[in-house]
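Throughout our pipeline, every protein is held as a single compact record rather than as scattered files. The remainder of this section carries one protein's record, kept here as part of the documentation.

===
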Amino acid sequence: MNNSLTDRQIAFILFGIIVGYGIMPMAKNVAENGGTGGWFALLIATLITAIFTYIITYLGYVHKNKTIYEYSQLLLGKFFTNIFMIIYIIYFFMFFTMIIRMASEVIRLTILLKTPVCAMCLLFLVAVYYAVSKGIRVIARICEIYGLIIIIFLLTIQLAIFTQGDIINLKPFFVLEDIKSYIKATSTIIFPFIGIEILAVIPLDKKENSKKIFGYNILMVVFIGILYILVAESCISVMGVDGIIYYKDSLLATIRRIEIPHLQFLRRLDGIFLPIWIMTLFCTFILSAYGSVFLTSKLFKNTSHKKITFVVVITSFIIAQIPNTINQIEKLMDYISYLGIIVSGIIPVILFVATKVKRYDTKNK
C-alpha cells in the first residue's frame, strides 16, 4: 500500500491533531497562568514545539520510508523499541478515547441536552472506524479539506470577537518583572501543542518529501502558535483576566457573550463555531486513533488492519464509559498530557541523539 504524503498534507495533519479540544479552555489557562502577559508564554511554547517538531521531522527525513518502529529498532534494538511502542500505543489510545468522552460531555451540556453521552461516543467512534480503516492517505485528504475550512472560520470568528473586545482588558501587555512567571507558565500552557508525535508514524518518501518538509512543518507550528495567541487575546479582550478564569470552556463562553448585528441571521457566533470545533475534534480523533492502530499492527503483524481497528474502537468505547464525572476525565487528561511530553519530547530526543552518535544522518545522504 502506498502511504506517501505530500509536504502540505503532512503539515495539515499536524494542524488537524494539534488544534482540537485544547483550543476550548485555552484562554482560561493562559489568563490563569500568565495573566495579560500570557501571550509571551504561548510564544515560548511555540518555539519549544517548533524545536521538537524539527527533531521528529529530522528522524523521518534521515530514515526515509521508515516510521519510529523501524528506525528505533535500527538505533536501539528490539527491546527498547517494544517498550517505546507500548508507551505510544497507550498514549494514542487514551488520548483519542478521553477526548471523545470529553467532547461528548461538552456537546451534551451545550447543544444536545437530552442525548446520552454513550450515544455520542458511539457515533464518533463509528466515524473514526470508517476513516481509519481507509488508511492515512484518506485521513490526510480529510485533514487538508477540513483544515482549510477550520482556519478560515476560526480566523473570521476571532477577528469578530476582537471587534467586541476592549483593549484595556489586555493591558499591561508585558511586565518585565514577571518574566519568570511567564516562563514558568509555559510548562502548563504547552499542553495544547501536544500532537506533533503523529509525525513519528508517518513515513517520509524520497520522491514526495524534500527538505521543504522542515519548512512546512515548522511554519505550521508557528501558525498554530499565532492562532492560539489570537484566541487567548481575543477572549481576554472581551471577558478580562478576572472574568475568564471561571470558565473551563472559555472560548465558547466568550463567543456566546457577544453578538454581531451586522451578520444578521448569523449574529450568534456559537452557531458557526460549534460545527467548526467538532470538525477540529474529528481530525484529532482519527489521527490519534490511526497512531494507535498503526503501531498496534506493527506488533501484531499477522492480524489485518481492519480487525485491529475494530478491536481498538470497541475497546475505546468501553473505556470511554468508565469515568463517572467530568473531573475524573480531566484528571485522566492531565496524566495523558504528561505522557504526551514523553512521546513528543523525551523519546524523539533519545532517538535523535542515537542517530547522531551512530551517524545514520551522514550514511543516508
Remarks:
- The chain has a mean pLDDT of 85.
- The longest helix spans residues 78-110.
- The two ends are 26 Å apart (CA to CA).
